[in-house]
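G., the chain you wanted modeled:
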Amino acid sequence: MNMDFNLFMNDVVRQARQEIGQAGYTELKTPEEVDEALNKKGTTLVMVNSVCGCAGGIARPAAAHSLHYDKRPDHLVTVFAGQDKEATERARSYFTGYPPSSPSFALLKDGKLCTMIERHEIEGHEPMAVVQKLQDAYDKYCEEL
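Predicted structure as tokens:
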């Protein structure tokens, strides 16, 4: 049974990685990749991915659909909580003032945190409500395409 569970979880993780990658987000798997990506000029949206139901049913769809908009971040990246632990820990070090939360979104500009959308703002909400929160952040911090 344990082996079946591990195979199942590997499939869930693989699918979660594929979904966010297909939406145009670049996976960051090491602390060095995180530092390079989060210190780029412009706006960077970080999705802290996870295997929980609210990530698959709400956060990842919102991450994809929010990009169909007049304004959007210059860079799209993701770290995977519980999988790429060192990369996730490094990314969270940029989110000063916020406790660890997954799934979640952080919007940075020139390496500085602008805003966060935490798990409590995702879990139990409709995907379109999360899309609206993301697009509100884009309106405030991102340039027109």
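DSSP finds five helices and five strands in the chain.

Shout if anything looks off.
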